[in-house]
Write a sequence for this structure.
C-alpha cells in the first residue's frame, strides 16, 4: 500500500454506477431490458468535450484502471503505468473513462446480478454478449456522459478488439484507435485454449449449470484450471524460463503427483487460487465466447479492408515480438487491411521478452511509443 500517493498517480478514485433503462438489443437476438455500467473517470472533460479517451479492458479486466480506491490498497489500477499525470494517457490533457463491460463481475450488470424478471441472479440465463454489443453499450455510455466523439478509444488484447469495433460500428464517434497486442479474429488455436478453459468450468461439479449462486458455492477448481491454462498463454517461453526455469520449491523431489515441487507450479496454482476468489465463472464463459465470436470481416466475406472502409479514425497498432497468443502477424493483418483501405495507420512491433502480458507492463520502448502517439492527438 502507498504511504504517500505517487506524484504521477491520478490519486484516490471512486467508481460510479450509471443505470440504463432503455432496452439494449443484442446480437444473439435477445435484449437486456435494463442494466448498470460501472465506470471510473480520471482527469477533467474540457469545455468542448473533445479530450475524452475510452479505455477498453481485456478478458479479466475491469473499470479500476488507475489510481487507488483507498490508502490501504496494495496496488493501483491495472493500467496505472499508462494512465496519469505525465504518463502516456496524460490526465492533465485527457479525460479518461474506464468501464467494467456488460457481463462482468465488478459491478456492471452480469450473470451474478439480479434478473429483474425473477429477482434471482441471472446465472446461465444471462444472454451471450459480443464485442459489438459491448461497443453499442459503450456508445450509450458516451451519450450519458455528453461525449459525441472520443479523442481516442484504447485497449489491449480483447480491449483492442473493442477499439477496432468502435471504428466500424460508430466511425463518426472516434478520432483515434489504439489496438495493442490484439487481433482481427481469434485463431483456431486460441479458440481451442478458450474451449479447454470453458470445459474446466462447465465440468466442475460445483458449477450446477451456472446456478452455483443459489447453491452458495463456487466452481473453484474449474476457475483455477481455466486461469492456469490462460496464464500459460499470456507469458512467453523466455519469460517463464527467466522467471522460474526449473527451480524447485522444495529441497528435493517427492516423486508423487500431488506435491508442488517446481516454482512454476507454485506460481500457476497461486494465480488460479487468487483468480477463483475474485472472478465469476459465468463471466469467464461469456468473455471467452465474445472473443471467439469476434470476426468483423465476416460481414464482408472475410475482406478486412472492406470492413474498415467506412472507418474515419487514425490508427495506432502495436504488437510484441514474443506474444504468441496474439502474435505480431495478427497485428500486421490489421495494418495491411488498413493500408489497403487507405487509412492512416502507425505500427510498431516492440522487442519484449514478456509475451502477451507485455501490454500491461512499463516497458520503456513501449511507453515511449505510447507517449509519442498520444502527443499527436489534438484536443
Amino acid at each position: 500500500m502507498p504511504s504517500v500517493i505517487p506524484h504521477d498517480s491520478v490519486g484516490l478514485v471512486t467508481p460510479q454506477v450509471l443505470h440504463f433503462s432503455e432496452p439494449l438489443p443484442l446480437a444473439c437476438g435477445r435484449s437486456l431490458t435494463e442494466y448498470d455500467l460501472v465506470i471510473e473517470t480520471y482527469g477533467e472533460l474540457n469545455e468542448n468535450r473533445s479530450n475524452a479517451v475510452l479505455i477498453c479492458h481485456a478478458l479479466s479486466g475491469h473499470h479500476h484502471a488507475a489510481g487507488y480506491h483507498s490508502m490501504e490498497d496494495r496496488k493501483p489500477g491495472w493500467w496505472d503505468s499508462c494512465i496519469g499525470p505525465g504518463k502516456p494517457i496524460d490526465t492533465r490533457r485527457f479525460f479518461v473513462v474506464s468501464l467494467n463491460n456488460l457481463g462482468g463481475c465488478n459491478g456492471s450488470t452480469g450473470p451474478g446480478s439480479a434478473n429483474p424478471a425473477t429477482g434471482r441472479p441471472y446465472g446461465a440465463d444471462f444472454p451471450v454478449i459480443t464485442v459489438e454489443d459491448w461497443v453499442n453499450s459503450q456508445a450509450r455510455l458516451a451519450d450519458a456522459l455528453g461525449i459525441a466523439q472520443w479523442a481516442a478509444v484504447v485497449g489491449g488484447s480483447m480491449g483492442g478488439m473493442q477499439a477496432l469495433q468502435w471504428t466500424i460500428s460508430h466511425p463518426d464517434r472516434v478520432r483515434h484507435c489504439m489496438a495493442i497486442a490484439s487481433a482481427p479474429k481469434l485463431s483456431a488455436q486460441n479458440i481451442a485454449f478458450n474451449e479447454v478453459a470453458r470445459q474446466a468450468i462447465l465440468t466442475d461439479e460445483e458449477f450446477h449449470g451456472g446456478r452455483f449462486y443459489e447453491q452458495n458455492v463456487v466452481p473453484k477448481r474449474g476457475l483455477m484450471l481455466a486461469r492456469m491454462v490462460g496464464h500459460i498463454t499470456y507469458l512467453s517461453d523466455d519469460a517463464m524460463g527467466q522467471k522460474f526455469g526449473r527451480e524447485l520449491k522444495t529441497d528435493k523431489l517427492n516423486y508423487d503427483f500431488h506435491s508442488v515441487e517446481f516454482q512454476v507450479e507454485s506460481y500457476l496454482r497461486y494465480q488460479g487460487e487468487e483468480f477463483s476468489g475474485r472472478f465469476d465463472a459465468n463471466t469467464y464463459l461469456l468473455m471467452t465466447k465474445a472473443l471467439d465470436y469476434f470476426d468483423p470481416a465476416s460481414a464482408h466475406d472475410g475482406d478486412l479492408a472492406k470492413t474498415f472502409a467506412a472507418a474515419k479514425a487514425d490508427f495506432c497498432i502495436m504488437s510484441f515480438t514474443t506474444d504468441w497468443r496474439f502474435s505480431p502477424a495478427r497485428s500486421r493483418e490489421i495494418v495491411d487491411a488498413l493500408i489497403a483501405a487507405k487509412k492512416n495507420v502507425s505500427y510498431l512491433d516492440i522487442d519484449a521478452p514478456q509475451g502477451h502480458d507485455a501490454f500491461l507492463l512499463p516497458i520503456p520502448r513501449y511507453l515511449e511509443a505510447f507517449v509519442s502517439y498520444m502527443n499527436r492527438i489534438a484536443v
